Amino acid sequence: MLSDTALDDEALAQRKGRHRRGRPVGRYLMCVHVGRKVTQIAVLEGRLLIEHYVAHDDDTQIHGNVYLGRVQNVLPGMEAAFVDIGTPKNAVLYRSDVRHGAPDAGHDGPPARIEQLLRPRQPVLCQVTKNPIGHKGARLTQEVSLPGRFVVLIPNSGTYGISKRLFDDERKRLRAVLDQVRPQDHGLIVRTAASGATTGELQRDVGHLLRQWERIEELARTVQAPALLHREPNVAVRVIREEFNPSYRGVLIDDRDLFEEVHGYVASIAPELSDRVELYDTEAEPLPLFERHHIDEQLHKALDRKVWLPSGGSLVIERTEALTVIDVNTGRNVGRTSLEETVYRNNLEAAEEIARQLRLRDVGGIIVIDFVDMEEKSNRDDLMRVFREALSRDKTRTQVFEVSELGLVQMTRRRIGEGLLEALSSTCPTCEGRGVVFDPGVSE
After folding, report:
1. Can you tell me the distance from the alpha carbon of 209 to that of 148, in angstroms, rounded to the nearest whole number?
2. Cβ-based neighbour number of residue 210 at 10 Å
3. How far apart, in whole angstroms, are the C-alpha atoms of residue 300 and residue 361?
């Protein structure tokens, strides 16, 4: 077992990850490009682009920020309140996200209604859980959570948990450590990154988050609503906090200021990995970072409606305001043995590619997939098993239902922000996004 403050040689070597000929070895590579208006982060698995993040230099990227808002109006029929947090559009706070045990709440009888808990002009401490999208304002919760490297602090809560992705022996060890470091009157969730962390490391992480919460509380007592109390760090720092581990062979950043910020952050939280953060010198390199790793090419393909599968089949991805529809076609895939076998193999390829496209395009909300019909139940069961396994690699929460009577697979994927298409494009001013232009001669 690891000591309370230090790592043994074996654990330290594991933390450092694998090296070959003095260079880090890993499955993933992160590339960070800083442009004039946006910062883009691409995650490659081998040479394949699997995830992409975009951060605009505006007030729409506020997920995770903590505000002291002011209630503008309460709508009992919607069980929601609109809250001014200082952004162009009021944010929405639903009854289910109002802090349980609020002072105004009743003790017996039916749960208190939102108009009993909130009133106009009332200040509320809240956190953004979804960025504003289109004409919709941000979504809020009063259940604030502050993420650290190893744990998530949930102030004034009894929440207590450990990531289910950890092995049972590690969960048992961390549960014992958690009993020592858990602060009074606050909840904690231990993250997957805490695997192998010592008691001392967890204590420092918890201490840092407690000081952060104390600053938020102090600021909330002294400012006038609406006011920003805590801003989430730069998107690159945020993604690295969530993702970076020894399975990454490196992080390449093409901006010196951001490189120094990220390198300093990694050196403070995981010094054994700091050598994997590198500056991509745009003056010395002949090609831009995203061109050098063929990211731009893959991004353009990810914006297409049609996606080709290796065997010749294809996907057609259509987005609407209500849901996303994905149609699977056999296309040029004619197979070799039988129609059922051809369709079965085509659908398995499609399941893997759909899971990748959902992550890459950051598609959220309701998704309906029309796989090619299969006669044998065992093949349909195999398809659902492969699809769920492919989706399990996606850190964003998904829920998949069985094949419907119409042969459709319905699923949901949690929506946090705008998708890839919306992030890298704007609505056509001529057709307003409909994709058609009416012929003026028709009405003559």
Report:
1. 7
2. 15
3. 11
Mean pLDDT for the stretch of residues 207-222: 95
Nearest to 38 by CA among 62, 60, 56: 56
- For residue 285, how many C-alpha atoms fall within 13 Å in the half-sphere facing its CB? 14
pLDDT for res 252:
95
User: Under a CB-based contact definition with an 8 Å cutoff, are residues 164 and 191 in contact?
Assistant: no
Most confident of 52-61, 110-119, 139-148, 263-272: 139-148
Place of tokens 């956190």: 127
In the three-class reduction of DSSP (H, G, I as helix; E, B as strand; rest coil), residue 240 is classed as helix
Per-residue pLDDT reduced to its tens digit, 7-29 = 555 555 566 667 776 677 778 99
**Which residues have C-beta within 8 Å of that of residue 104, sequence separation ≥ 6?**
112, 116, 117
**What b/e readout covers 156-173, taking b as 16+ CB neighbours within 10 angstroms?**
ebeeeebbeebeeebbeb
Question: What local confidence, expressed as pLDDT, does residue 15 receive?
Answer: 61
Give the residue from 378, 390, 306, 310 showing the smallest Cα distance to 344: 378
Distance CA 259, CA 263 (A): 6
- The string of DSSP codes covering 47-95 is TEEEEEEEEESSTT--TT-EEEEEEEEEEGGGTEEEEE-SSSS-EEEEG
Among candidates 32, 54, 132, 44, which has minimal Cα distance to 424?
Answer: 54
**How confident is the model at residue 2, as a pLDDT?**
47
pTM: 0.80
% of the chain residues with pLDDT over 70: 91
Are 387 and 355 in contact by the 8 Å Cβ rule? The answer is yes
